[in-house]
Amino acid sequence: GSGSYRSNPLCCLMSYAIKEMFLTLQGEGVHCGRRAVFLRFTGCNLWTGLEKDRSSAICQFCDTDFVGMDGEGGGRFADAQAVADSVATVWGASEIRRFVVITGGEPMLQVDDALIDALHDCGFEIAIESNGTFSVPRTIDWICISPKAGSETVQKSGDELKLVWPQTGSDWEQMQSWDFSHHLIQPMDARESDDASATNVQSAIEFVQANPKWRLSLQTHKILGLA
User: Fold this and answer.
1) Catalytic residue among 31, 59, 77, 160
2) Mean per-residue pLDDT for 58-69?
């Protein structure tokens, strides 16, 4: 239950540093196509976000800018209620199926019980996308873990396991025994060329055809030109 998870010692902050906050459609995974507010936190424990550090980072393929607080709706928020109120404003007047996706960077560097409670009090169903190196509280409604090779995954249960593919060193066979309702393979968006990305898509298709526990997840927001 709440409070029983092993949280990051830095997460109990007086304020929250947020890169951006915007209304979009969830582009990946089981909730693909669903109206959502994306709440992106700054910072990550597997890469600084600076290109000069990419080659030495544990995670070298990140395609997200999570540095600073200068994005749409970003900034430093004094407390959990201030964050939740802003998320509600971005969502708009409708009370129907309010949905917020907490992401990063690595959001568990900052997410705490106060924020979870404040978002729930505003009527939001909460999803999180985490690298799994910190425990995630089950009070979050939808837990998506995306393990990164070379890091220790401590959160081995949840709703959705999303493995970016290919990743040298990923023990996907062991991951099949982890307690997730959905096991997803997502082709890596290769920064070097479209041909490399197409090769990764084909590799992911072949993987799913050979391993029926897994299903394919595409980054439809990129296909549709959404943020």
Assistant:
1) 59
2) 92
CB count within 10 Å of CB 198 equals 12
- In the predicted structure, residue 3 carries a pLDDT above the cut 50: no
221 is catalytic: yes
Spot the catalytic one: 62, 66, 103, 124: 62
> How far is Cα 220 from Cα 227, in angstroms, rounded to an integer?
10
Angstrom distance (rounded) from CA 175 to CA 134:
17
Measure Cα distances from 172 to 44, 51, 122, 177, 187 in Å: 23, 28, 37, 9, 14
Q: Which of 24, 65, 139, 221 is catalytic?
A: 221
Query: What is the reported pTM?
Result: 0.90
Is residue 11 annotated as a catalytic residue, yes or no? no
**What integer pLDDT is reported at residue 222 of this predicted model?**
82
